[in-house]
Amino acid sequence: MGLDRERITQAALDLLDETGIEGLTMRKLADALGVQAPALYWHFPNKPALLDEMAEALLAGVADRASPSDDFGEVLRRCATELRRALLSRRDGARVFAGTFVVRPNVLRMAEKVVAALMRAGFETQTAMRAMFSLLYFVLGFVIEEQALTEQLRAGGSEQKLDSALAAVSDMDFPSLRLALPELQDLDQDARFSFGVDVIIQGLRGMDGSIGRTG
User: Fold this and answer.
1) pLDDT tens digits for 9-58?
2) What are phi and psi of 102, to 5 degrees?
3) Rounded Cα–Cα distance for residues 74 and 83 (Å)
């Protein structure tokens, strides 16, 4: 089978699942493909270029079903949910995407859906763009933490760390946090994610009573 960008990218994503982003090297990728490393550099000049292509591949299909004519809140919620699902589909998926500036169709398609829905709802261009970035940064940060927790569970010892942290809160003079201990113990990531997205949407709705009132 010939070597092309698509095959290399798919192999890199598979290797990512095995090694994580630190273990993903061009040499290991070349070994997995049964080629010499220079063969990869013909298609990708360096690892960052490969990560850009991997990030674009991760977002394939994200937001395809979202219509800018829908209520902007529904568009933002759908895009955020699908982006999170896409990033979680691969080990360290959020870290692959974070820090890149991928100007590719899959990434731009999602951004277009969000910005168009907000502008249709009456938001100014600057507000729509800032809202899009705020949503993107929330999803990336959330999934990075979510996947870090998964790695801790994989390595073991995370439950002991959590128990120690809860004990420290109980022993110290943090009365509000003591009352919130049940929430600290609740690891329902879906509920936490939905809450965060809702905060962003409701914050946008409250920016101006005449903007997005019907959504």
Assistant:
1) 999 999 999 999 999 999 999 999 999 999 999 999 999 999 999 999 99
2) -85, 110
3) 14
